[in-house]
Protein 1
Amino acid sequence: MGTSCRLVAVFEPGSSPSAAVEALDAAESELRRVEALMSTWIDASEISQLNAAPAAVEMELSGDSLSVLRSAFEIFEASDGAFDVTARPLMMLWRDAGESGVIPSAAEITVARDASRRLHFELREGGAIKRMGSARVDLGGNAKGYGIDRALEAMRAAGATAGLVDVGGDLRVFGPGPGPDERDEGRDGNAAGLVPRGWIVDVTDPRQPGRILETHRIRDRAVCTSGNYARFTEIEGQRFSHIIDPRTGEPAVGVPSVTVLANTALVADSWATALSVLGPSGLTLLPDGVDALVLTEERGSLVRHATPGFPGAE
Ligand code: AMP
Ligand code: MG
């Protein structure tokens, strides 16, 4: 997936160390399995084969690829088309522009836009059919999240009582965080007492990565971040996001940073990309159970836009 990962598996005291090694191995295998199925950097992946397939021929797909595509198409609808895995022809056009250093012409954008349409794909029970030969999908915006979910389930199935799967800063945790329980100071009107620790997650300053803006304590959630600060290309002296706005066919003017909390990393990863296109106005489109923090920059200062359910900064 072009990045590094960090896996933590927590076991009851007295468990055999080999149980922990097995849990970590199982999680890593799941990440590699999902990458081998869905990466467009791997020619033999299922998704690369779907991309190479001619029109009107049903391509058989695994249940994994089908569920990631189904989720993508649901979020395409929910995000008013901002999250669009079928925008790969546009993504490739702008990626090539980043390499050649020349901004694409209006005619090139039109051709890529015509090939970048949700309607060019039809999902069947066991596979997918392309309606246009040049149509392509790119799961760069959500497959990593799916891999995180599968890795976490593998760890849980291997007997871990708690765990963390972090792939390049996108992550999901389950169970109490490592370390001793903590004294609850009776915030929010609760009686003070011992509460199991959460996992500590930092949100960094998009303008100064490494500088921590806020810290959250989470339990049984996924946290994914997207934004302009992490990845961009420079073409003809202008900075362009790696995220495409499928509605204009151009790189998203986007926001510096988006952090999404959801029950699954698949959902958090997808919405982080969607909100990078939509900006703060997209917060109202989020389904129940999904919360987000969008940071924008206005006259040199960062402005915080969050859903009511997004935890306040600690
Ligand atoms: P992320 O870093 O999770 O926001 O994902 C960015 C990646 O998602 C890009 O490198 C593309 O592969 C893909 N992508 C770009 N624009 C979009 C979009 N509008 N909808 C879905 N995926 C996208
Ligand atoms: Mg994403």
Protein 2
Amino acid sequence: MTAAVSASAPGKIILTGEHFVVHGSYAVAAGINRRVRVTVKPSKNGFSSIASGKDSSKVASEDGKFRAAKTIIRKLVQDYEQNSNPIEVQIDSDIPAGSGLGSSAAVSVACTAAITKYFGNIVSSKDLFALAMFGEKQVHGNPSGIDIEASISGGIILFNKSTGAKTIKTQNRVSLGVIYSGEKRSTSLLVAKVARQRDAHPNFFRNLTKSASYQSLELTDALNRGDVERIGTLFNIAQTELEWIGVSTPSIQKIIERVSGEGTYGAKITGAGGGGSIIVAAKPQILSSLINSLIANYPHSFVTQLNQEGLRWEP
Ligand code: MEV
């Protein structure tokens, strides 16, 4: 009997360029210290199934659950209904779904890696990216691929849809605060909303897309130097532009106001917005106490260093 296989992949934050990256800009993303672990083993039930926490579903069922993972399983397990060797897929995640922290991408990446290895086929990063994108397209509609790329590679990446990802090195370890607002949102609806903005104001949007690229290139330099103050300034510029395209919300504004003050350099939405999460750059001496002061109201608040490991095998 085939042994169980486990893989884990990190969630992500986007530091600059979300949304504009779908329309061709550069963007910067990083893996975070919150992961999804996927275990694949032979099924005892005679059918393929998937489970996470208290929720479970047959892979063959069209109940709307686990859409990304099911798309990948169906792609990889041809004729799954008649398959003589059905599988059981277990997902353990410490990334809240719908929080803008890349949980669906991490599920897609860890699922693809664990299932392909289970079937005796370790795929290259390029093939893994292409397979994991099948899952991401189920959830995102028109994904740029940045979430999948950041989850595979971990670390920090400068990403562009046409040219792919380049690793960004930092001289000093940079840490950022991450705060989940608790407001769930749908990435595909937000991406569609932004596409309508682009169609309504094409010239304005083209300039914002260029601006996102300049911010991402300048951020690459700030990260290289470990210059947290400049990183924060770029976050504030990016946030203003994300507000202009309509993806900020009162709950996001409230958190940004709450973290602004002595020792904070800047804060912004991370990911699609419409709720979700914010990131904050602050003086290293105050970052932990700032984040701890938010936990009572926002339990998913944490500090992450930007040197997290990407996809890895688990025992
Ligand atoms: C979502 O994490 C980032 C977006 O830019 C969409 C994408 O790039 O696929 C909003």
